[in-house]
Amino acid sequence: MNLKDFEYVKAIAQYKHFRKAADACFVSQPTLSGQVKKLENELGVTLFDRSTKQVTLTAKGERLLTQIEIILEQTQILKELAATSNEPLQGKLTIGIIPTIAPYLLPALLTSMKAAFIDSQFSFIEMQTATILEALNKGELDFAILADVPELINYHTVALYKEDFLVAVSHDNALSKHKKVALSDLQGCSLLMLSDGHCFKDQAQKFCFSAGVDVSNQYKGNSLETLLALVAMDDGITFVPKLACTDRVGIDYLPIFPNQQRNVVFACRKHYPHLSGVEQLGEWLSAHPNLKAKLSKNSKDLG
Length: 303
Description:
- The chain is an alpha/beta fold.
- Helices cover about 40% and strands about 20% of the residues.
- The protein has ten helices and eleven strands.
- It has helices at about 5-15, 20-25, 30-45, 60-85, 100-115, 130-140, 200-210, 225-230, 275-285, 290-295; strands at about 50, 55, 90-95, 120-125, 145, 155-170, 180, 190, 235-240, 250-255, 260-270.
- A hairpin with a 6-residue loop joins strand 1 and strand 2 (about 55).
- Helix 2 (about 20-25) packs across helix 3 (about 30-45).
C-alpha cells in the first residue's frame, strides 16, 4: 500500500463516484479502480459498496477512512515541517480576504506591498470566513486576512491591527448632532446589517442584542457600500469598521460607547511551511504608515 492509494480512497469517499474521483486525482478511472481493488485485497476488506449507482463506504470502510485521513494529514504536516525555513515568502501566494476588509485595506497597501516583497506574487480572493477556513484546510489558500473569531483557535494567527466600529448616520438623522452614541441610543432606529455568513454581522449583532437593538429586515446583502448608500438617504443606520469610513456625501461616523472593536489577523495552517514569512509580512503591514494614519484618524474628520 502507498499514500497515493489512500488519496484515491479519500477521493472516492468524497465524490461517491469512481470517475469523478479519478478526475480529481488526475488519473484514469481504470488506474484508480485497480489500485483501490489492490488495496482492498491487501487489507482483506471491502472498502466500498459498488452495488448501487452511488458508491458508498462499507462499515469497515468508514472505520478505515478515519485512519486514512489521519495518515494523510500527518504526512502533510511532516512535509510542511520539513519545508519550514526562515526564507521569506516567495512565488505565487493565494490569500483569502473577507469582503468587509478587502476594498478598504488593499488599495492603501497593495502597491507598496508588491514593492516591499518583490519575490512574491500576491493573488487575493474575497471570501466569507467559513469559506476561507475550508480553503485553508484544503491547502487552496496560503493564508488569509480576516477578523479574529473563535474558530481560529485551530490555526496559526498573526495580529495585524485593532479596528473600532463606528455608527454611520445620515446628516439628516437626529443622531448626527451627537459627538458619540451609546448603544442604547440606537433603540428604535432602523439598523441595517449584512446577510448571514459575514463575521462582521455576527460581531455587530452580539453587542446589538445585548443593548436590545433590533435589526432591520429592509436589506440583506453582501455589500457594505449598499448599506452606506441607504444610510446616506436616511433610510437607516449601520455599523462600519473604521477603515471603511471614507468620505461620503451625507454621512457622519460616530464613535460608540462602550467602545466596540474587532481584531484583524493573518491566519494560516499551524504547520504552514513559511510561517516566518507570514510573521514578517504581518509586521510590515502593522507598521505601515497609511494603515496607522487611518486607524488613528479622529471620527469627526471621517465624514
